[in-house]
Amino acid sequence: LLLILRDERFGGSVLGGNLSSRDALDEVLFNDPPLANLLITYPRQPILIDEVWLPAHQPVVISMAACNNDPEVRSGELLGNRSHLAWGVGQHA
C-alpha cells in the first residue's frame, strides 16, 4: 500500500482512474512478493520441471522472488495478469 501511495507510477495511475488498486497490488506482488522463499507446495502428481522430476505429495519450496522474473516467460506487461503465486493458491499454484 505504501508503494501505491508513494510511487508516482502507481499513485498517479490509480488516482487518475487508469489503473485499479487491484492491478497495482498485483504488480507489487509480481515484483516484490512479501515472502521471498517461504511457499511450500505439494505436487498432486509427478511433474517434470527443467529436466527434474518432482514426485507427487513431496514438499517443494518455491522462491516467490524468482518465479515471476524469468525473462523467457515474463512478457513485461502485467496489467490484467493475475498469475503471480503470492497467495500460494489458485490455478497457478
Q: What does the model show?
A:
The strands form 2 sheets. The protein has a two-stranded antiparallel ribbon. The chain has a two-stranded antiparallel sheet with strand order 2-3. The protein has helices spanning about 1-5, 10-15, 20-30, 65, and strands at about 40, 45-50, 50-55, 60. It starts with a helix and ends in a 26-residue tail after the last helix. It has 2 domains: about 1-30, no CATH class; about 35-75, no CATH class. The protein has about 90 residues and is α+β, with helices and mostly antiparallel strands. It is elongated, with a radius of gyration of 16 Å.
Number of helices: 4
The helical percent reads: 25-40%
Assembly type of the chains comes to single chain
Mean pLDDT, to the nearest integer, reads 74
Q: State the major sheet.
A: 2 strands, antiparallel
Strand arrangement across the biggest beta sheet: 1-4
Structural class: alpha+beta
Low-confidence residue ranges: none
InterPro entries: Cyt_P450_sf
Protein name: Cytochrome P450
GO molecular function, one term: monooxygenase activity
Organism: Nocardia cyriacigeorgica
Give the helices and strands, then pairings.
Blueprint: H1 2-6, H2 8-16, H3 21-31, E1 39-41, E2 47-49, E3 52-54, E4 60-62, H4 64-67
Antiparallel strand pairs: 1-4, 2-3
Describe the structure concisely:
With 93 residues, the protein is an alpha+beta fold.
Notable characteristics:
single chain, heme binding, two-stranded antiparallel ribbon, 93 residues, 2 domains, monooxygenase activity, alpha+beta, iron ion binding, two-stranded antiparallel sheet, 4 helices
